[in-house]
TrEMBL record:
Orn/DAP/Arg decarboxylase 2 C-terminal domain location: 30-373
NCBIfam families: lysA
Catalytic reactions of this protein: meso-2,6-diaminopimelate + H(+) = L-lysine + CO2
Biological classification of the source: Bacteria, Pseudomonadati, Pseudomonadota, Alphaproteobacteria, Sphingomonadales
Protein name: Diaminopimelate decarboxylase
Gene name of this polypeptide: lysA
Entry annotated with the keyword 4Fe-4S: no
Keywords: Amino-acid biosynthesis, Decarboxylase, Lyase, Lysine biosynthesis, Pyridoxal phosphate
Pathway where this protein functions: Amino-acid biosynthesis; L-lysine biosynthesis via DAP pathway; L-lysine from DL-2,6-diaminopimelate: step 1/1
Residues involved in pyridoxal 5'-phosphate binding: G242, E278, P279, G280, R281, Y375
Protein role: Specifically catalyzes the decarboxylation of meso-diaminopimelate (meso-DAP) to L-lysine.
Modified residues (N6-(pyridoxal phosphate)lysine): K63
Organism expressing this protein natively: Sphingomonas swuensis
Cofactor(s) required, per the database record: pyridoxal 5'-phosphate
Length: 424
């Protein structure tokens, strides 16, 4: 469920007409619903309530949408944070998410990042290799601190999703193979400055079946047993994220959070570990839309070209991994047409969809790309010297600009002009 609804013939976000936001801010612009985010956070927390030993932690995957206002909203709603860079760590702390509710994931942590996060505090480093563990050991020893860690395990389970958002097969860069886990834990236990207490897994994003997740969790449970028999105390199990979100009619319907929670309780019943979860898309995906305006409609060889003012630099997901976004008119007339929807960027890849039947619109009309709250604005860039997309957060009848449009002049101002007098 989301809070984008037709009222009086026009699409609203909660109590605010999208037409009003477009008039005030311009297009393209991302629009987020506070009520939707908070509801999704509550549903996820309720779904995993009672799982594992002790209170489970739902740590929002900051990479999905790191906007400061979004993080503050989700932190206030009770979520922790899963971060993959020191920048995300700083954003989470700035949003007043407690250090003991933050996990630091990511395959390429630097010594500097490790040092800052260790000094600032966190629940756990999710370590991706024994080489990383050795570096963290040196950092922690130099600070006279102990770094809590859990190894990320690669269970070699296919997630059944797009190859570019699959992370748990043998040829992915993430984690250590399950077959090498006992050796890695054995070495890490002997390294100074490390508190080896956890284990983690994450096999991919936008999963529409629980089967791959259950298979991965079962393998993790077997490994927990083997590690304990080897003498390791495993008290924390991070089950990652990846549960898909609904995209609308004709698209695969993912399992509900409640069904996911039921499966987790059954599979982990004997683990005796605190459980962590890292949802991102599930929380914010359907809480946001990209609002854009039709520049013109151009005749095509087969279907007309609907050219909008949002480009692949604003919403990269279709170009990156053929992502589907439902497209709707802000003021639908009831008429439908089949079109190709494209942006103004000078790339053939700047194509959102081909041959899509959708609401019939004309030049100047507003449309939205649905399910754009995750991996939308955070992936935006300034290709073709286009401004960075602004973001708006709606709360009931109120709304605020929570990221301004960063224009071409502002982007040019950060460039170094030393080339005017180059050294010989």
């Amino acid at each position: 469920m989301d809070h984008f609804e037709l009222r009086g013939g026009a699409l609203h976000c909660e109590g605010v007409p999208l037409e009003a936001i477009a008039a005030a801010v311009g297009t393209p612009v991302y629009v987020y619903s506070t009520a939707t985010m908070v509801r999704h956070a509550r549903v996820m927390m309720e779904a995993v309530s009672g799982c594992g030993s002790g209170a489970p932690l739902v740590a929002y995957a900051v990479k999905a949408n790191p906007n400061a206002a979004v993080l503050k909203t989700l932190g206030d709603a009770g979520l922790g944070a899963d971060v993959v860079s020191i920048g995300e760590y700083r954003r989470a702390r700035a949003a007043r998410i407690a250090a003991e509710r933050i996990v630091f994931s990511g395959v390429g942590k630097t010594a500097e990042e490790m040092g800052e996060a260790l000094a600032g505090g966190l629940l756990q480093f999710n370590v991706e290799s024994i080489e990383e563990a050795r570096m963290l050991s040196a950092v922690a020893t130099a600070q006279g601190r102990e770094a809590p860690i859990g190894f990320r395990i690669n269970p070699d389970v296919a997630a059944g999703t797009h190859a570019k958002i699959t992370t748990g097969t043998a040829d992915n860069k993430f984690g250590i193979p399950a077959a090498e886990a006992l050796g890695a834990y054995g070495e890490a236990a002997g390294l100074p400055g490390l508190a080896v207490r956890g284990i983690t897994v994450h096999i991919g994003s936008q999963l529409t079946s629980l089967d791959p997740l259950e298979q991965a969790f079962e393998r993790l449970g077997e490994l927990i047993g083997a590690l304990r028999r080897q003498g390791h105390s495993i008290s924390v199990a991070d089950l990652g994220g990846g549960l898909g979100v609904p995209h609308g009619p004709g698209q695969p319907e993912p399992p509900s959070p409640a069904a996911y929670g039921t499966m987790v309780r059954r599979v982990t019943a004997t683990w005796d570990t605190r459980l962590l979860f890292e949802p991102g898309r599930l929380i914010v995906g359907n809480a946001g839309v990209l609002l854009t305006r039709v520049v013109r409609v151009k005749p095509g060889a087969r279907d007309p070209w609907l050219i909008v003012d949002a480009g692949m630099n604003d919403l990269m997901r279709p170009a990156l991994y053929d992502a589907y976004h439902r497209i709707e008119a802000v003021r639908p007339t009831g008429h439908r047409s089949t079109v190709n929807v494209v942006g103004p960027v000078c790339e053939s890849g700047d194509t959102f969809t081909m041959g899509r039947e959708m609401d019939e619109v004309s030049e100047g009309d507003l449309i939205v790309f649905r399910t754009a709250g995750a991996y939308g604005a955070t992936l935006a860039n300034s290709y073709n010297s286009r401004p960075l997309t602004p973001e708006v957060l709606v709360d009931g009848q109120r709304w605020a600009l929570v990221r301004r449009r960063v224009d071409v002049d502002a982007l040019a101002a950060v460039q170094d002009l030393a080339w005017e007098n180059p050294a010989d």
